[in-house]
Amino acid sequence: MFQPTLKKFTILALVLALASNIYIFTYPSLSPCRCSFEQQTGLQGLNSNSTLAQRLWCQSQYYFSDVIKQVSSKCTEPTSKQGAVPDVKLLAIGDPQINGIWPTTSYLRRLEIFANDHFLGHIIKQMLRRLKPTHVAVMGDLFSSQWIGDSEYYNRTMRYTRRLLGRSGEQLHALRKESHDAAGEYICDWQQYGEEYKAVREGDLTKLTWHRENAWRWTPEDDYLLINITGNHDIGYSGDTTYQHMARYQHLFGEDNYWIEYERDTDHAWRIVVLNDLLLEGPALQPEFISTTWTFLEHLAARNFSGTTVLLTHVPFHKPAGLCHDAPETRYYPPGYEREPYKAGLLRSQNLLSQDVTDRVLSLIFANGKPGVILTGHDHEGCDTAYSRAPDGSWSAQPSSARTPDVRELTVRSVMAQYGGNVGLLRGSFDPATATWQWTYSLCPFAHQAVWYCAKLMPLVAALLLSTMLVW
Question: What is each CA distance from 397 to 98, 157, 324, 381, 443, in whole angstroms?
Answer without folding.
Answer: 32, 35, 11, 18, 21
